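CO-FOLDING WORKSHEET

Operator: S.A.
Ligand of interest: 2-acetamido-2-deoxy-beta-D-glucopyranose
Run index: 262
Mode: holo prediction, single chain
Checklist:
[x] sequence pasted
[x] SMILES validated
[ ] output reviewed
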Amino acid sequence: MATSMPAIIKLCSLLLLLVLVWGVFEQPKTCEGGESFACNPKDAATKDLPFCRATLPVQDRVRDLLGRLTLQEKVKLLVNTALPVPRLGIKGYEWWSEALHGVSNVGPGTKFGGVFPGATSFPQVITTAASFNASLWEAIGRVVSDEARAMYNGGVAGLTYWSPNVNILRDPRWGRAQETPGEDPTVVGRYAASYVRGLQGDDSNRLKVAACCKHFTAYDLDNWNGVDRFHFNARVSTYTIANNITYAFMEYSYVHKASLTG
Ligand SMILES: *[C@@H]1O[C@H](CO)[C@@H](O)[C@H](O)[C@H]1NC(C)=O
Ligand SMILES: *[C@@H]1O[C@H](CO)[C@@H](O)[C@H](O)[C@H]1NC(C)=O
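OUTPUT RECEIVED:
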C-alpha cells in the first residue's frame, strides 16, 4: 500500500488536470455562443490567448494556462466548487456531479429543467450487479455518459462524475448497500472496470466524461451513533486493505485511469 499511494495520487492529479483542460477547452457545438464555457469566441479579451487556440498542442495550451494563473487563483481551483477566473474568461466549475445509475441531481453540478427535465434512471446498482453481466454494466455506463454529455453541452451538467460507488459491502447497517455492486471484491472490481469504461469511453486520448470511484478507502461508515465518516478513524488490517477493500479500486484505476475520491 505504502508504495502504491504516490502513484495513485500522481495519476489522480494528472487526470484532474486533463479533465480541467478538457472542460476548459472543449467548445460545445450545440451551445449557442458558449457563454457558460471558457474560451468564448465572442470574448475579444481572451479568444486569442494561446490556451484558447485549438490548433496548438494540448501540452502548450496547458503550459500557457498554468503560466497565467496566480497561486491564489490555483488554490481557488482546488476545491469541488472551483471559482471563476474572470480576467482569463474561465467560468466557475462544479466538479461534483453524480451518476451511480443514471445522471442524478444529487450532485450540485447537475440541474434538471427546461429541455432536460430528467435523465434515464436505471435500477439500483445492487440489482444490476446481481446479473453478473459485465457487458450490461458497460452498456448502462455508455447510456449514462451519452446523456451526461448532452447535458454538459446544454450547460446543465459537468464532465466529472463521482461514480461508481465501489465500497465493498461489509455491513448492511451502513445504509448505502443499494449503491454498490455488493460484498465480493472480484465482482465489485469487474463492475468498476466495466462501468468506468462505459462512462469514459475507450478513446486513449480523451475521456467522454470522467468517472471517479468512491470512497477511497475504508470509508464506508456514514453516520452512526454520533460517529461520522469525516472523523472516524477506521482501524483496518493491512491484509484486509490489500485483499478486500482496495481490490476493486486497483482493478479499475490502473487499467482505466479513473480518479479516486474519499
Ligand atoms: C448481458 O447484457 C447484454 C447487454 O449488454 C445482453 O445483450 C445479454 O443478453 C446479457 N446476457 C445475459 C446472459 O443475460
Ligand atoms: C471481504 O470482506 C467481506 C465482508 O466482511 C468478507 O465476507 C470477505 O471474506 C472478505 N474477503 C477477503 C478476501 O478478505
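REVIEW:
The radius of gyration is 19 Å.
The helical segments are 5-25, 58-68, 71-76, 125-129, 134-153, 185-200, 238-245, 247-256.
[x] output reviewed
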